[in-house]
Amino acid sequence: MRLIGKVVSLFISVKGIDKRVEQSVIEVTTEGVMGDKFYAKETDRSVLITSVESYHLATNKDITIEYGELGENILIDYNPYAFSLGSQIFIGEAILEITQNCTLCKSLTKIDNKLPKLLKDDRGVFAKVIKAGKISHNSHIEII
Q1: Which tens digit of pLDDT belongs to each residue from 34-48?
Q2: Do 118 and 70 touch, CB atoms closer than 8 A?
């Protein structure tokens, strides 16, 4: 395994709350992120990983955006587009497998109309959980 980065922030979606809720620790199972409103929905897309680089792209274009607003569960300091589909990463106690690049959704226009086009290829990647476990703020990320 090779160390490639670390976790910057962690988030879950909670029913009835528009913004993602920051967590110091999340627990993932093969059904997704426990406590997240999308838990056990689409297991191949159960975890969204985004890079701080995506936020830098937005702020460099004078778009005001806070961590979590791109819908991520895990914000990292490494560009997840460097992962090939099918790549597995060890993060905290868990193993995740990259399943697809994140598709853009209309909710990004609520932040700024320019955001979907700007982040077309830089919003993040979806992953499924191969091995359950806890992931903490500052957990190391290793490619398997």
Answers
A1: 999 999 999 999 999
A2: no
pLDDT of residue 81: 83
CATH annotation of 2-143: 2.40.33.20
The pTM is what?
0.93
Q: Which two tokens stand for residue 38?
A: 């999308």
How do 47-51 and 74-76 pair as beta strands? parallel
pLDDT of residue 35: 96
- Which phi and psi (to 5°) does residue 97 adopt? -120, 130
Instruction: Tell me if 50 sits within 8 A of 74, measured CB to CB.
Output: yes
Average confidence score pLDDT of the chain: 92
Name the 3-class secondary structure at 55: helix
Which residue shows structure tokens 């607003």? 69
Q: Where are the domains of the chain?
A: 2-143
Q: What phi-psi label fits residue 82: left (phi over 0), alpha (psi between -120 and 50 degrees) or beta?
A: alpha
